[in-house]
Amino acid sequence: MPCQSNQELDVLIRKVSPYTKHGKVADYIPALGKANPSDLSIAIHYPDGMCISAGNIEKKITLQSISKVISLALVLLDRGPDYVFDSVGMEPTGDPFNSIAKLESVSPNRPLNPMINAGALVVTHMIKGNSVEQRLQRLLSFVQKLAGDSTISYCEEVARSEFETAYLNRSLCYFLKQHQVIDENVEQLMDLYTKQCAIQMNCLNLARIGQVFAMDGIDLKLGKRVIPHDIARICKTFMVTCGMYNASGEFAIKIGIPAKSGVSGGIMGAVPGKFGIGIFGPSLDEKGNSIAGIKLLEMLSKEYNLSMF
């Protein structure tokens, strides 16, 4: 079923587009710094396969931190919650997503949750496989299954750019290795993690994955469950409590839907029992979230009463 342009979404896009001027693209990753800050698009994917959209939804974006939700679901499938949460906590943090501060101040020295970089690195460390290539392929196959698109891969330019500039993430890895939270070669883990973050897709793919989480792990288009209910529930809970970096509390109050953002400007939303949302707007606020994308979701939530609270 083709994705149809929607007049109401077009109007909302025009209303929030001026906000893009108040943000900044993630130029600390050189490849992401090439993005056009005025880009803005949205797709909404319904369980029956219908899709509505506005903007250029075919433009490919890299998942960045949105990949943390998907890798968590895969590792929970592979190893179970008890194994995973022995090494990663479940608590929100008020610190920036790349902060090392809480690792030093909590005991044991494990990351507070899987949505901050330290926690995501531990989760990626748990992906099963005998090599970076094998583990990446397992993750890619899972992403392709959720999105219903076997062509999804990763952007080599972005992965290389992130790998070459990931000094802080390397520091997190060495700290985690010092405290026996991970036992992997740091460069090997960084190779896998930067390729994970560079997995790319369009807004429609993103909305379809959001729709699977919204329906508690069932892909009604395929007519089958692709994620166990409890794993989908865990992932959506983290999206609510930690998904929008250290703006998650404000996001929950103003918008109130499970969502995960990435510094490429992507946002994946999962409106429980209703539909999935994919947004791309690379102009970011000071917390690292799409500045116009947040405003777009706020208007949608108010207009259609989407908050789960």
UniProtKB/TrEMBL annotation:
Keyword Magnesium on entry: no
InterPro entries: Beta-lactam/transpept-like, Glutaminase
Lineage top rank: taxon: Bacteria
Catalyzed reaction equations: L-glutamine + H2O = L-glutamate + NH4(+)
EC number: 3.5.1.2
Example of a GO MF term: glutaminase activity
Keywords per UniProt: Acetylation, Hydrolase
Binding site for substrate: S65, N117, E162, N169, Y193, Y245, V263
PANTHER family: GLUTAMINASE
Quaternary context: Homotetramer.
Similarity remark: Belongs to the glutaminase family.
Listed HAMAP family: Glutaminase (MF_00313)
Protein's name according to its UniProt entry: Glutaminase
Organism for this UniProt entry: Aquibacillus albus
Gene from which this protein is expressed: glsA
